[in-house]
Amino acid sequence: MSPPPEAGDVTSTDRDRQPTSVLLPTVRWADACDEVAGQLGERDELLVICDTDDDPVADRRGTTPDGVRIVLAGEPEGCSGKANAIAAGMEAAAHDRIVWTDDDFAHPDDWLATLNADYERRGPTTEIPVFVGRDPLARLFEPAYAIGGTAAVFAGGIAWGGAVVFERGDLRDGQDAFLADLRRTVSDDGTLTEHIDVTAANRTRTVPCGGSLRGSVERFVRFFRIVRFHAPRAAAFDVAFAAAFAALCLFAPVVGVTLVTAISAAVYARFGIRRATFLLAGPSVLVAPLFLAYALARRTFVWGGRRYRWRSLFDVEVLPA
User: Fold this and answer.
1) Considering the entire predicted model, what is its pTM?
2) Could you tell me whether strands 315-319 and 68-72 are parallel, antiparallel, or unpaired per DSSP bridges?
3) Phi/psi at 207 (nearest 5 deg)?
4) Residue 130: partners with Cβ closer than 8 Å, 6 or more residues away
5) Residue of 185, 197, 198, 195 whose CA lies nearest to 226
6) Domain extents in the chain
7) Residue 292 carries which DSSP code?
8) Is the CB of residue 308 less than 8 Å from the CB of residue 316?
9) First CA to last CA across the chain, in angstroms?
10) DSSP-derived pairing of the beta strands 20-25 and 45-50
11) What CATH number matches the domain at 20-319, 3.90.550.10, 2.130.10.10, 1.10.600.10, 3.40.630.10?
């Protein structure tokens, strides 16, 4: 699924690079925890961050591999659980070099070494997500996520929180200002993008998403809200693009469907996405205005077992799910 790593990606040894703190928010000990723990150098650390003692992963305290710590972030107040976990991890991390990651994709054996080599060569670096649906609606959204997610991260200097490396000194306004913003918003990677200049590596990671129709709808609402608050011009463009292409596909179906399918196929080819879901671009475009209208009308959404009312960039209310 992923293009081959760029030549020379792994260039530094564990002895001649900065030690790294890897932050991995999760409530359960996932495969990703073992994958990353096995890649730590002697001076590196992995912080597995959960909310409270009630989370299953908290039971692993005292039994984790060398270099791994369990961090309790506490319940979020005025921000998402993910943003709260990242903020707690940043405060607990021992090193200046920071890597963020998630528990929902595979980390090959050279993942951490390659990210560190990326940083040595070009500074703050992000990998690129490819979202692969696990239910019919998520699969229908795949062309939209490839264009608005995969291609946008690559071209737009957008940090993806699943795989990004930076150092504290790279934060333009300093760590305190960054953590203050994290603790009053929803999107961790959207907020990081506001505070750092990042370059995308020519590598993708396959991220399964969805699993239920409700979960896919909630994800769509959250993704659109992130774009709306962090990049309002891009959100307006997305709405106009969706409306224009839906009209084209409706009134000139041969031309419209052929065009959007060709665009999706080109994006899939560029990022090595070997899936037939690019053929769903036409149906996806036709229903996109309905889902965008729904996302605009919704006042709350559910993420990670919590319901959020996200009124503006720094106005978040946490509600029972």
Assistant:
1) 0.93
2) unpaired
3) -120, 110
4) 1, 146, 150, 204, 205, 206, 207, 271, 273
5) 185
6) 20-319
7) H
8) yes
9) 35
10) parallel
11) 3.90.550.10
Distance CA 303, CA 238 (A): 22
Burial of 243 (0-12, 13-18, 19+ CB in 10 A): middle
Mean pLDDT of 97-110: 98
| Partner residues linked to 71 by β-bridges | 49
Q: Which amino acid is at 169?
A: G
Torsion of CA 51, 217, 199, 18, to 10 degrees: 20
* Integer Cα distance of 67 and 61 in angstroms: 12
In this prediction, residues 236-248 reach a mean pLDDT of 95
CA distance 90 to 167: 11
pLDDT band at 15 (very low <50, low <70, confident <90, very high): low
Q: Can you say how many angstroms the Cα of residue 165 is from the centroid of all Cα atoms in its chain? A: 13
Adjacent-strand bridge partners of 303: 306
Distance in angstroms (rounded) separating the CA atoms of residues 321 and 309: 11
Paired tokens of 66: 């060398």
User: H helices within the chain, ranges in order?
Assistant: 31-37, 81-92, 111-122, 136-145, 152-156, 175-182, 188-195, 213-230, 232-251, 253-270, 281-297
